[in-house]
Fold these 2 entries.
Entry 1:
Amino acid sequence: MLDVRSVSVAFGGLRALRSVEVAIADREIVGLLGPNGSGKTTLFNVVSGLVRPAAGEVWFGGVRITGLAPWKIARLGIGRTFQIARPFPRMSVFDNVLAGVTFGARPASRRIDRAREVDRLLATVGLAEKASARASTLSLGETKRLELAIALSTRPTLLLLDELASGLSPKGREEVIRFYARLRERGLTIFAIEHSLAVLNEVSDRVLLLDQGAVVAEGPPRAVFASRELRAAYLGDE
Ligand SMILES: Nc1ncnc2c1ncn2[C@@H]1O[C@H](COP(=O)(O)OP(=O)(O)OP(=O)(O)O)[C@@H](O)[C@H]1O
Ligand SMILES: [Mg+2]
């Protein structure tokens, strides 16, 4: 479904991604792990069209999407959340999601149907009671759930989730794990950056480890967690 082929990104002299290869199959949940600054968000930015790679290509469902505008990539079916959630702060929770539903792919033509879709999405992420609250009044956990609803509002088939569980309480993390299960039941394909090994172990079929812009390990969560590469990435080479 997603095929990242030998993608490299440079910011001035900094090599943020080095010949990164990623292949994700339909309905797979793949975790992305790596120390701060290893290039995880940059990889998501390349896939969603916010950063143009210096080399390499990205294919999605048989279509070459490298260099397409972000909104075109979103309409092809890739949704994402941002590490720092950024809904429109002065708009209500409902209107934030309505904006996504209205401008995403295949919006329902009748307003009542779009409103129903928003209600359904807010129920999915457990924010139905906050529908009329201003986005700026939400807690961190609620803001992340709103981001998730916005990401789902364009009806993606592939979701890129950037640290959904980070900064949450243990209870919040449990909830996030349940969201992953629910999204899997809906048949979504997910590429997820998480720092918590417990969360990754619970939700992902496979994990990729990035270190200084390169994929250095890949496999079942437990195998990657126990790898020499993981120790080297986080503790430095002995
Ligand atoms: N737009 C940009 N311009 C210049 N440098 C950038 C830009 N975006 C990212 N970088 C740099 O590229 C490297 C990779 O950053 P990136 O945000 O992808 O890391 P990350 O793995 O997501 O880290 P974190 O775990 O802290 O979120 C870092 O050194 C970062 O400072
Ligand atoms: Mg990041």
Note: The longest helix spans residues 170-185.
Entry 2:
Amino acid sequence: MIYIDINQERVPALGLGTYSLTGQACRTSVADAILLGYRHIDTAKMYDNEQDVGYGISDASVDRDDLFVTTKIWHTDLTRSGITAGLEDSLQKLQMDYVNLTLIHWPSDDMNLEECLETLMELQQQGKTRLIGVSNFPASLLQEAKSIAPIVCNQVEYHPYLGQSAILNVVREHNLMLTAYSPIAKGEVLQDQNLVNLGKKYGKSPTQITLRWLVQQDNVAAIPKASSHEHRAENLDIFNFSLTDEEMDHIHSLSKNHRLINPHFAPVWDD
Ligand SMILES: NC(=O)c1ccc[n+]([C@@H]2O[C@H](COP(=O)([O-])OP(=O)(O)OC[C@H]3O[C@@H](n4cnc5c(N)ncnc54)[C@H](OP(=O)(O)O)[C@@H]3O)[C@@H](O)[C@H]2O)c1
């Protein structure tokens, strides 16, 4: 495993995404992932699976302190009371006293950013979340958020077809973490001949090459979702090889501004 050291927390650079996993499938996936060696789990109130994630974690019987659990506050809850009640509800469903990281899931035109971040800071001081951060914040808004509060993360879509250079510049300037969601472009990388060819050199799949490319970058974590044991095991098996600088650059050059997630309430992207 590669770790990202951030504000006295050690974040495993590879985690399990859980969007669209619910019920028993979610519970089993989370428990199985932990048994495989995953120690970083990503959920959100909006995924409607926090209770199942919590059950999966307790089934796996690991020390809570060995896990890094992230949840998120939905964009319609971005008021002082909405954020406070939202995190309380997430903790209750997860059956936990604290999460490691709480994110604003999407920015909203209606939010008062200062008030939102102050509320998150209060929850952090109360020990309900170890770290605070944002998700889907364009570079300029990330910069503004960082000037208000000690946020540590921006979780955004990032894969070989969507470069994130502006956000990465802000992330590295302030030693934050970029958590890459849809890291294997929802499976699109599987057909990519560039990645297939690179994989042949290392005996790895295009998915593994892509995940390695992400976690080999400074301050970048990745949270692929996988509902099968085989995919979860494959995605974790990326720590026994490394890509050369030339290969890293080659994968960067595949970027073509191909964004997969862009709901009607998304911000104007500045990358
Ligand atoms: N902050 C946000 O707004 C936001 C937005 C989107 C996603 N996310 C987070 O990021 C996580 C991942 O993103 P995502 O689910 O959109 O996309 P993704 O992880 O890029 O792709 C998931 C898809 O790839 C397949 N897959 C996984 N491993 C594979 C492997 N080794 N070989 C072949 N196929 C494989 C999965 O199939 P199987 O399930 O069949 O294994 C699933 O269909 C989400 O679950 C969520 O936690 C956050």
Note: The chain has a mean pLDDT of 97.
